[in-house]
Amino acid sequence: MTEGHRGWTxxxxxxxxxxxxxxxxxxxxSLFVVPMEQELGWSRTAxxxxxSAGLALAGLASYPVGAWIDRAGxxxxxxxxxxxxxxxxxxWSHIGALGAFYAVxxxxxxxxxxxxxxxxxxxxxxxxxxxxRQRITAMTLVGGFASTVFIPLTAVTIEAWGWRNALVMLAxxxxxxxxxxHGLWLRDRAVAGAPQRRGGALFDEHFRRAxxxxxxxxxxxxxxxxxxxxxxxxxxxxPLLEExxxxxxxxVASIAVFGPxxxxxxxxxxALGRRAGAVRVGRLGxxxxxxxxxxxxxxxxxxxxxxxxxxFGAANGVITVVRGTAVPELLWRESYGAINGALxxxxxxxxxxxxxxxxxxxxxxxxxxxxxxxxxxxxxxxxAGFWYASVRSERA
Length: 396
Description:
Layout: H1 4-27, H2 29-40, H3 44-72, H4 75-92, H5 98-115, H6 117-127, H7 132-143, H8 146-161, H9 163-185, H10 205-211, H11 214-243, H12 248-255, H13 258-272, H14 278-296, H15 302-331, H16 336-365, H17 369-391
Helix pairs in contact: 1-7, 1-8, 1-9, 2-3, 3-5, 3-6, 3-16, 4-5, 4-9, 6-7, 6-15, 6-16, 7-13, 7-15, 8-9, 11-15, 11-16, 11-17, 12-15, 13-15, 14-15, 14-17
């Protein structure tokens, strides 16, 4: 089932489910803020607090989800995630109390932990031990269009039928597409040789071995710092550019470069095949990351912004793939889900906290210059962490 044409059909079905999961839950959130403010009277800070709470819980759930996939496969956990996503998006459409909204988003955080890239990567590494890199790249290639597809689609639906009906439509997308893919098509069962815990131990021997390896900690620092920078820039780039008096048309046009640049980077990796190893590609991507931030410290100009988004998008595109391939290539394949989940935990927590921290720094400094210098420093630490991990790799 897992090789040849039929195997690739499953890969692209899982990739399409990634597109729907990312687009319907993660990327759609910002589009509901304004209509919810207007109807319910809740502050923007309170609304975004629910998102941060959900992302934080997604981070905390990443290790147990990965360990579950190592032991029993991804079918059950990803199906539960899709079902939970559908139920809670529908519940969101009927929300009327702020406390209930926070409860919904904490549940959606669990749905994200069970359905997004990390569990998808674990399933592909498990099903295709000799060809996981191409499959992971293909998954991120399709998933990279999530914002391109769902942001305009959700915006049009909100405009035509209101935000509550738009959420019902997103719930149906999860129930009618993602749930059948994960529950019926994905037949990833427990396999012989799956890691087992002895005597009720929290971690299996392969995971404990990873905790003692320098490359694991280098990857942890690198991925966590990258998550913080990417999240801070994603949620603050528009007010940053507005503070620098960049025209709205220029901002919109430059941001439009990000998605194609991200996809182009992944297409290049797919074309390179086995030559695009995690070490070589990761070193390049993590070096380009802080280099791109330097451009934002220059006087704003259209050409500078376009080059920034070209570099930042390409770096993000390849780093996402590296996050899926680094564990088997720099460490080992055993207990992939648990090890990758443990690396994802601080990364997702950093993604949740970084926008809030950047806002505090902006408020204290009075401008976004301090935020950019902080992002540059954190990006440099991320780069150094990956270089350290690659040097201390099991296969160096």
